[in-house]
Structure formats: C-alpha cells, structure tokens
Amino acid sequence: MTDDTRQAFDLAARAQSGAETGAAGPRDRLLLRDYPVEVEIGAFQAERGKTQRLVVDIVTDLRPAAPAGDDVDRILSYDRLTEAVDSALAAERLDLLETLAERIAARLLAEPQVERVYLRIRKLDRGPGELGVEIMREDASDATEQAGQTPRPVVALIGAATAAAPERWRDMLLAEAGPLVICVAPAAPGLAVPDPVAQARIDLLAFDQAAWAMVPVLGLEVRDSRTELDWAMRRGAASLWAPSRMVAAAVEPPAGTGPGDLAAWLADRFDAREILLLGADAPGARCPARRLDPAP
Description:
Shape: globular
Structural class: alpha/beta
Order of helices and strands: HHEEHHEEHEHHEHHEHEHHEE
Distance between the termini: 64 Å
Keywords: Folate biosynthesis, Lyase
CATH class of the largest domain: Alpha Beta
Strand order of the largest sheet: 7-8-6-5-9-10
Protein name: dihydroneopterin aldolase
CATH topology of the largest domain: GTP Cyclohydrolase I, domain 2
EC number: 4.1.2.25
Largest sheet: 6 strands, parallel
InterPro entries: Dihydroneopterin_aldolase (IPR006156), FolB_dom (IPR006157), GTP-CH-I_C/QueF (IPR043133)
Number of domains: 2
Catalytic activity: 7,8-dihydroneopterin = 6-hydroxymethyl-7,8-dihydropterin + glycolaldehyde
Strand content: 15-25%
CATH superfamily of the largest domain: GTP cyclohydrolase I, C-terminal domain/NADPH-dependent 7-cyano-7-deazaguanine reductase, N-terminal domain
Number of strands: 10
C-alpha cells in the first residue's frame, strides 16, 4: 500500500509505475489536491468547541470506459470529490481523521466510475508539524451499501406519563410500519446546574436513561449513532434512540433539549415520513405529525 499511495500522489512515481506495468499502464485518475477545510474535529477536550484547519488530497482511479468526447455528463465531475468531503464533514462531528477518511472514501466508491480511492488528510494546527492519515480503498461493496438509499423512518415521541404505562400502547406502536425510531421523554428533569453546556448534557443523558429503561418493556435495542440507526432502518428494524452522542457530535444541533426539539431534529435529519405522538405535543418538524392514542 505504501508504494501505491506514493505513486498516487506522486505523478513522477506514477509514470515510472506505468512504464513497469506495460503498455496498458495505470488507470486514468481524477485528482483533488490541497483542498482546505476548517472544521471542529478531534477526540481531546482541548479540540472541542474550536475549529482546526485540514487539508485533503484525493486521487481516484477510474474504471475503463468508452471515450467521453467533450461531454461533461459522461465523466465524473470534479465537484463530486469536493462534495464527498463536504458532505462527510457536515454529517456529524467526528473524533478521528481515520473515520472521516473512511466516510469520504465510501462516498466516492459509491460513484460508478470510481474503482479505487487514495486519500490523505492532514491536520495543520496540532503539534509542530503536519499530522495526518493516508488510506487506499478499492472494495466498493460495503461502501455502496452504506451510501445507498436509507428508508424514510417513522419517529415516535412518547411523553413521560405515557411511557409509564406501556401496556396501553406497546403492541399498537410496534405494529406500525417500520422502520421506527422511538424517542422517550424522561420521567423527571435531571440535576440542575448553572452552566448551560453542562445542563444540556445532563438533560440529554436523561433521555438516554429513558431509552434504556424501555429495553425490557419493548425488547428493542438502544442505538446512539447515525451509523447504527442507518443500519437498523435498512433492515426495517425498530430502535430506541439515545440522543446524547449524536447531538454532541452534530454540526447543527437541535434548538433545545426538550422532547419536541429532539424529535423534530431527528425527524428532519432522517427525512422522516411522519412523527407519531403518544402523550406528547407536536414538534415543529418538516414532516407531518399523527397522534396515536393509547388504549384506555
């Protein structure tokens, strides 16, 4: 891999490789060099709440194809490279460059023209030099599944009082056509502290606890990341949502930490078909809301 990466980013090395591999030579390539972005990323506390400069280099090997002539609609546009970077950064806050690199590569490998991706990401603001990662990915099977169309879910928002009597609504809720993502309001407010950032985290952890409390009642798994929820949705599975991790990692977090704020934010992020309300007020989401009245 080291030689492959060196050849990908070094045109002189690539030319030498072509001479050694015979008349056919290496694949045509599309390049993006020194693409600057500024984003919040990093696992250390000192890296939270501030942005860092990154530089991204991408080289894509293209599959053999008939000549495109001068028709822009028959080629892989340069914009697809920058869009892969920008969309991966916009999805959520990440701790690791390695994760960011994998997600960019997955997006590019989902393009039908792309056979192989070489990717380098460097941090410019950590330490005396440039820190970074380099990867090469070429198996598009997993990437295509991850980048494929995720079904639009139904988000269920269960009020705290209603959650206390699950025998009145459990079967009715689980009979709804999936995929289903359930947000449970906590029974009581959490510890009150004067710091607003700390208070928001405490409030979110109360929702996590409420989700876990429903596990023995509903027999569902708690999921706390977009990756896990995507996986469950593609399989039509229902999930209990623990929001604290996703909200903390969000580039654009919800407006508040109330039940309606969180349900609306989740529904908008996943383009939900609708929000089911069980003993809860309608949130201000883009999708319609429908009340599901528990049995008496």
